[in-house]
Design brief:
By secondary structure, the chain is α/β, with parallel strands linked by helices. 33% of the residues lie in helices and 18% in strands. It is built from 14 helices and 18 strands. The protein has helices at residues 81-86, 112-122, 138-150, 187-197, 212-218, 220-229, 244-259, 279-285, 296-305, 324-331, 340-354, 360-375, 393-396, 416-424, and strands spanning 8-12, 18-19, 37-41, 75-78, 90-95, 98-99, 104-105, 130-134, 154-159, 167-168, 176-181, 203-205, 235-239, 268-274, 334-338, 383-388, 402-403, 408-409.
Length: 427
């Protein structure tokens, strides 16, 4: 049976204006100030699809036109051992990674697969445009795998220092091209590269946090948790680089509130960053909607130091309407900062207690949960969702893996015409 596209409209979060989606709308064309747009689905009830597999189980709340091969859904379970260690009664772990023991089979070991399967399914099947994605690591790996599996042409821009994150269990197809900013660059340099490539209409900017498909794909983590818990969590924990996943979690919590069957309470959003790269933490603690100043040199230096490299976005969607500042404020949440030593400690503790390896970013969230408990921000009997955004690499790679090397290395300082010419030659 052919897939019937989900019916939805877009809403300007700042003004409330409702309008129809175009082919790839990333912002309200009538907006007078920066704002995210949010999908408003015709089906206001949370209705998992029994006829679809993987992430497309949640297709009623995904702005997609088709379904793709090999998707997998986040897996939520009630923790016993970590919960006992922290003295908690209702800790639920939502695991996105490769852990067949609990049914988690994301080959790239990251919840970024949720956004890749949603974004790519928003594309028309026969589009002639080439998707462009910028990433610090996990997003690049997820989009590369999804596009390779489904024969979708894509250009992925990353910092060359993060090429070690481009590991795959099997070599990728030629439809995936990797463009790297030179050594010493950061995520913002990769963003600049992608922006110049997209000056040519042959290439389509994925859009990052502005893409409703990206956010609603990531928001499936909350849907997974609610299916198991039977209610909206009291609190949600996640480490953030851009904050897009936390924004997505809050948006789905709001949809579930409107549904009315899963509790009418706010889900408090608790985010964390890896010190010293704490631009959003510092801004939030200063009570500032605007991001505090951070130079390119400081950003690069801080991103070199942190263990959780994927948490190093110096231009995140924090200030605009519907961004992370509003998410934290509206949900009654907070932010935490975590050191490298604390990350290592919680990676080891999680492995010992729960039995699977997790990425540094995920350990950052575990540490934040511990801090919140110590401060009394979260009660030990509250229902808590811990978003483990990546793990299981030891399971996934035990039979070996290969690294996808850059197809070309380009400075983001080059003129757009020169960058586009070089990328065109890759095809």
């Amino acid at each position: 049976m052919a897939f019937k596209p989900t019916r939805y409209q877009l809403v300007n979060v700042g003004t409330g204006r409702i309008f129809e989606d175009g082919e790839w709308t990333l912002a309200d064309p009538e907006a007078t100030s920066p704002s995210l747009v949010r999908a408003q689905y015709a089906n206001r009830l949370f209705t998992p699809r029994e006829d679809l597999r993987g992430i497309y189980r949640y297709a009623e709340w995904l702005p997609i036109k088709r379904v793709l091969k090999h998707s997998h859904v986040p897996v939520t379970y009630k923790s016993k051992y970590l919960a006992d260690f922290l003295g908690m009664e209702n800790l639920y772990i939502t695991f996105s990674g490769y852990w067949p023991k609990i049914g988690a089979r994301m080959a790239t070991c990251s919840f970024k697969e949720t956004e890749a399967y949603s974004v790519c399914a928003r594309l028309e099947k026969n589009t002639k445009e080439i998707l462009v994605v910028q990433s610090a690591g996990n997003t690049a790996r997820a989009f590369a795998q999804v596009c390779s599996d489904n024969n979708i042409p894509i250009v992925i821009c990353i910092p060359e220092d993060n090429v070690h994150d481009m590991w795959f269990r099997k070599p990728l197809k030629n439809c995936v091209k990797l463009v790297a900013a030179p050594k010493g660059s950061d995520y913002f340099d990769a963003i600049a590269l992608g922006e110049k490539i997209c000056k040519n209409p042959r290439y389509r900017a994925e859009g990052g946090a502005k893409n409703v498909a990206r956010r609603d794909g990531m928001g499936t983590t909350v849907l997974s948790a609610v299916e198991v818990m039977g209610r909206v969590p009291d609190a949600y924990f996640q480490a953030v680089g851009s904050g897009t996943g936390a924004i997505a979690a809050w948006e789905n919590a709001c949809r579930l509130q409107e549904d009315g069957r899963y509790g009418g309470h706010n889900m408090k959003i608790f985010c964390s960053q890896n010190a010293p790269f704490t631009i959003m933490y510092d801004s939030w603690k200063a009570g500032s909607r605007e991001l505090l100043p951070l130079t390119a040199e400081q950003s690069r230096r801080n991103s070199e130091v942190i263990l959780a490299k994927v948490l190093s976005n110096r231009k995140p969607p924090y200030s605009l309407a519907g961004g992370l500042f509003d998410t934290l404020k509206d949900s009654g949440g907070d932010m935490y900062k975590v050191t490298n030593d604390e990350i290592v400690y919680w990676m080891l503790q999680f492995f010992k207690l729960e039995g699977v390896d997790i990425f540094p970013a995920a350990a950052t969230a575990v540490c934040a949960l511990s801090q919140a408990l110590d401060e009394g921000k979260v009660a030990k009997d509250e229902y808590v969702m811990l978003n483990i955004t990546g793990g299981g690499m030891l399971n996934a790679t035990k039979k070996g893996f290969s690294i996808k090397e850059p197809d070309i290395v380009l400075s983001p300082d080059l003129p757009a015409e020169e960058i586009i010419m070089a990328v065109d030659k890759l095809w």
